[in-house]
Specification:
Arylsulfatase, C-terminal domain; five-stranded antiparallel sheet; two-stranded antiparallel ribbon; 1 helix; about 40% strand; globular
């Protein structure tokens, strides 16, 4: 049995470029914007990048999730919401900005 995510995820499908979607998460005491869903370069699946900002030619983290368990839980919640958003749009609904 899967444990429900403690996070509410808002997702916006991108559809252009290498970014597949933008996501925000909300927990009991926080809201974080700026997550991105990408396809892995080797084609083996998807990954979630934490919020970051570009300065010059380099990207710097805005938020660092130090706990591996929390980072994985957030990534899982975002990827689940991404899958649901894809299914929703394939089913004929066009919920570009969805909350799961």
């Amino acid at each position: 049995m899967t444990t429900p995510s403690p996070y509410k995820v808002s997702i916006s499908l991108s559809g252009n470029g290498s970014v597949l979607a933008h996501a925000s998460i909300e927990g009991k005491t926080m809201r974080i914007h700026g997550f991105k869903v990408f396809k892995k370069k080797d084609g083996s699946g998807l990954f979630v990048s934490e919020p970051s900002q570009k300065s010059g030619e380099k990207w710097y983290p805005i938020v660092e999730i130090l706990s591996k368990e929390h980072r994985q839980a957030i990534s899982n919640a975002i990827l689940t919401a991404y899958d649901e958003a894809i299914k929703t749009t394939e089913g004929g609904r066009d919920d570009e900005d969805a909350v799961f």
